[in-house]
Amino acid sequence: MTPGSEELEDLFENAPCGYLTLAPDGRISRVNQTLCDWTGYPREHFADKRVHQFLNMAGRIYFETHIAPLLRMQGFFHEFALDFVTETGDRMPVIANAAEQRSPDGGVLSTRLVIIRAADRRRYERELVEARTTATESLKGERETSELREQFIAVLGHDLRNPLAAISAGARILQRSGALVEQRELRVLDMINTTVTRMSDLIDNVLDFARGRLGGGITLSRDDRRPLEPVLERVVDELRTASPGRVIETSFEITEPVNCDRTRIGQLVSNLIGNALTHGSPDEPVRVGAKTEGGVFELWVSNAGEPIPVAAMEKLFEPFFRGDVRDSRQGLGLGLHIASQIAQAHGGSIAVTSTAEETQFVFRLPLRG
């Protein structure tokens, strides 16, 4: 190294702030020593992980629903307050800034994040929140506080729908008008539509989770008069559009009426296929099938790839459990949980098997009973 390059390397590694560099797929490719010291994690622990994996649960939700879409849209964000979780499990308040480095055609080359500790600034804010929480707990008790928090999540989900619908409507108007003709402009429009769809799915999952925790459970509107196969085909077509590089094969033999909530079954299969696309081998097809046989409706989704670890099997249907995400699709870890709740609400069940050759989720529902 030349003397100048040594100074720059020292500035990067030992700066009074943390530095992270992300690859185009959002995974961490480089971290400086300062952030390693602050969090207590060795450098290799950061490799190929995503930023939200080092945040607390509230930070993960905020990062998924707000920060990540904003970064993709404008290429930067400034002064977002987040809580990193250290190796010892402690919260480390920080202020984060980020900027993307893009190629001339608009493709993301890398993303640079600066992490600044904000313990003093955030301590005062947290003390105010904790004081209010303590007062609430003393008046109403832990149960009421928990319900209030989840009611807030439900209301927030409803309030997010209005601006999301406006963004979606605006994108459709632009698409129909033909005003955007440049390849880069059309790519941005496609990105908006894909992001809107993904955020809508996230909101649905958060709302269903909140309803379940509040005691309302999954609501159903069952009907056996309309065919189910067109609903399944429509869901598959939407996911094919959202994942153009992936192959989804279908095989449907539904010969008897299925008394179910078609919207909820569509949500269930969408969550299962989304999970298969996320964790399955990208160069192998995802297979989706459904049939009625022996008084049972059976729907399955399978993918090739690494088998699910035995330890993870026990947590697959727990809320916020995500496992190891191996591509650019991200979520809150509610998809399989909501799918299992939909299955239970119908009086059915979901089973999973995973080997080196195939991972398969199977939903079974008695046709009568």
How would you summarize what this structure contains?
The chain has 369 residues and is α+β, with helices and mostly antiparallel strands.
Portion of residues within helices:
40-55%
The total strand number stands at 10
The H-level CATH homologous superfamily of the largest domain, spelled out, is: Histidine kinase-like ATPase, C-terminal domain
Uncertain segments: 325-329
For the largest sheet, list the strands in their spatial order: 2-1-5-4-3
Rg (CA only): 23 Å
Instruction: Provide the residue-averaged pLDDT.
Output: 83
Distance between the termini: 75 Å
* Count of the separate structural domains: 3
| N-to-C series of helices and strands | HEEHHHEEEHHHEHEEHHEE
Discrete helix count: 10
Strand content: 15-25%
Quickly give the CATH architecture of the largest domain. Answer: 2-Layer Sandwich
CATH class assignment of the largest domain: Alpha Beta
